[in-house]
Amino acid sequence: MLKPEILDPQGQAVQRALPRLGFEGVREVRQGKRFELELDGPADEAALDKVREMAETFLANTVIEYYTVRVEETDEVTA
Fold first, then answer.
1. What is the pTM for the complete model shown?
2. How many domains does one find in the chain?
3. Residue 51 lies in domain
4. Residue 78, Cα to own-chain centre: how many angstroms?
5. Structural domain contains residue 67
6. Taking 90 as the threshold, does the pLDDT of residue 64 lie above it?
7. Do the domain assignments include residue 16?
8. Looking at the domain assignment, is residue 76 inside a domain?
9. 2-12 pLDDT per residue, tens
10. Would 69 be classed as within a structural domain?
11. C-alpha–C-alpha distance, residues 73 and 17, integer Å
């Protein structure tokens, strides 16, 4: 993954595309060898279902790739 202070144009492009595809509530996307998504609100089952749908339809090429969804809680609060 890129260091946090390094701009991530691929992640920004994905972040801008998600709402156009009907996926709301993603605050930030970082892309490297994996995608990291910060969600608005709790990572409840409904939110995780949406993330899985994003992965299945947009983020992963399921013909040649597999994906996993992992939740990592942080104490970090952004304004």
1. 0.68
2. 1
3. 9-59
4. 17
5. no
6. no
7. yes
8. no
9. 888 889 999 99
10. no
11. 25
In Å, how far are 7, 25, 51, 74, 78 from 61, measured between CA atoms?
A: 24, 22, 15, 28, 31
Where does residue 12 rank: exposed (0-12), middle (13-18), buried (19+ CB within 10 A)? middle
Q: H/E/C letters for each residue in the chain? A: CCCCCCCCHHHHHHHHHHHHCCCCCEEEEEECCCEEEEECCCCCHHHHHHHHHHHHHHHCCCCCCCCCCCCCCCCCCCC
| Residues 42, 21: Cα–Cα separation, whole Å | 21
Query: How many residues make up the chain in this entry?
Result: 79
| Identity of the residue numbered 47 | A
Amino acid present at 52: R
